[in-house]
Amino acid sequence: MARLCHPKCRLGNKSMGWLQFLLGGLVIIFSICGLVKFYSAGFFFHNEDICRQFTGVKDAYEGFDIKALSDRVGEVVNKLESLQEKLESAVQQMEKDKETLPNITKFEYKKYLEEEVIRPLYAAHISLRLIRLPKAEGIHNSTMKEEPLINTFVIEEIRKYITPKESRTGKLNIYGTERIYNTIGHACVLYKKELEEYMSYDIGSYCNDDWNLAQKLMLNGCDPLPRRRCLTRASMVYQKPYPINESLWKLPDDRNVRWSNYQCRNFKCLMGNNTKRGYFKCVGCFEMEKEELKWVTNSSLSVDFLISDVLTIKPGEMRIGLDFGIGTGSFAARMREHNITVVSTALNLKAPFNEMIALRGLIPLFVTLNQRLPFFDNTMDMIHTSGFLDGWIDLQLLDFILFDWDRILRPGGLLWIDRFFCVRKDLDDFMYMFLQLRYKKHKWAISPKSKDEVYFSALLEKPPRAI
Ligand SMILES: *[C@@H]1O[C@H](CO)[C@@H](O)[C@H](O)[C@H]1NC(C)=O
Ligand SMILES: *[C@@H]1O[C@H](CO)[C@@H](O)[C@H](O)[C@H]1NC(C)=O
Ligand SMILES: *[C@@H]1O[C@H](CO)[C@@H](O)[C@H](O)[C@H]1NC(C)=O
Ligand SMILES: *[C@@H]1O[C@H](CO)[C@@H](O)[C@H](O)[C@H]1NC(C)=O
Ligand SMILES: *[C@@H]1O[C@H](CO)[C@@H](O)[C@H](O)[C@H]1NC(C)=O
Ligand SMILES: *[C@@H]1O[C@H](CO)[C@@H](O)[C@H](O)[C@H]1NC(C)=O
């Protein structure tokens, strides 16, 4: 009550602070209102229609990502709007409590300005700065008005990564190009949140233990994935690997794998008879005694060819190859015994397939189906595929993959399709796919898998291409 009776008492030193605060708030609010009006008038391309009003022609914004740009601008505008609302409601609150208002200390006033005004303003300022405006004249000699995807990402490290790097001398680099483009898969834009999580780290410090996030991104089309500038974690008790004369057919040391992202905690647990093994592709692949029988012992199924039979087709000619599938590298191990170097593709689908292959002394190639294979044309003596491509695969996708395999196989190279399986009624479609390349048929077999499914194996030779 005392306060109410003595309104003058508020006109002390501290009231100056109030006055400054109110005036400051009003200045900010007016400038923001101006900005918001400017925005709603369409100065920042709100959507295509408004954009057309200003530019007249659609062509004017071809070559840059109008959507990403307007998203970024929208973010800044939202930040400013919420700041405005906050300040307005603070002012209203003050009006309401005019009489009962407690004195605000300088300290509180400073704190309020810092936390509630300066910080959000700063964030909006940074966001504005991050927006790269399109260059009307195009980038270098291209018609593109901005670097691809640059306004799509907010995290600074991703933007740094995808910004092309010119050579320091200003001349052409060793490849004869002007710039080095670090690439990422275009589907990265669909996994913006995950990618930003992946790329949030302190440069030079330890990365999170997030290989599974990386693999998830790759499998979802964010492939290639950006490189990172943090240190990958390793097993704390890493042991030196077994010598090659022992490692090929022996389960590796459990201590050489980081198990935290798997259901199992050691290799024994990955046995096929363990129902809690956590993975479902290539069940039994971790049982070395079973793996040792593959491709060297007669099987009851006609679709199982023997390595010795395959190699006698081209004696001495097979030296390098690719095993495209899911497995622990046993095919490559067998081929190594024939002095043939085979690279095995591997994805860690709920089990450490990559680590297993590497610890056996073989080469795991961590690739998905998304990408062109990283081998040059006409280079491989052999491609073996098993356990991965089967009836689920889209025919057009299979077509692209088959032509890519054809590209890397050398003339006279062998394509060994091993136990491809599909439902019986789809067999003709897949046969057509495999036969369209007009390879020479060395071996060809079909066996029933279950009531409606069949296995299919073939050994095909790429013909010479004398054109
Ligand atoms: C406000 O400040 C005046 C003097 O500046 C003081 O007399 C009064 O008690 C203060 N009121 C409150 C609620 O702190
Ligand atoms: C653009 O192309 C011209 C010739 O085609 C070349 O002389 C010039 O250096 C190029 N400029 C840039 C920035 O690439
Ligand atoms: C493997 O080779 C090393 C020497 O290179 C030898 O000492 C060791 O006994 C061999 N191991 C087996 C299982 O043959
Ligand atoms: C799985 O089979 C192996 C032998 O291959 C055996 O030693 C092990 O006890 C079996 N595990 C289970 C859970 O049955
Ligand atoms: C597989 O069977 C064939 C005859 O059917 C025989 O000639 C060959 O020796 C057998 N190979 C093995 C590894 O058992
Ligand atoms: C592989 O190479 C080694 C050394 O050159 C040789 O001793 C061995 O007989 C070869 N093995 C086969 C299966 O050709």
TrEMBL record:
One cellular component (GO) term of this entry: membrane
UniProt keyword Membrane, yes or no: yes
Subcellular location: Endomembrane system; Membrane
Membrane topology: Single-pass membrane protein; Single-pass type II membrane protein
Family: Belongs to the methyltransferase superfamily.
InterPro entries membership: Prob_Methyltransferase (IPR053223), Put_SAM_MeTrfase (IPR004159), SAM-dependent_MTases_sf (IPR029063)
GO molecular function: methyltransferase activity
Residues spanning the membrane: 21-45
Family matches, as Gene3D superfamilies: Vaccinia Virus protein VP39
Domain of life: Eukaryota
Keywords, sorted A to Z: Coiled coil, Glycoprotein, Membrane, Methyltransferase, Signal-anchor, Transferase, Transmembrane, Transmembrane helix
Pfam family, one: Methyltransf_29
One GO biological process term: methylation
Coiled-coil blocks: 66-100
Name used for this protein in its record: Methyltransferase type 11 domain-containing protein
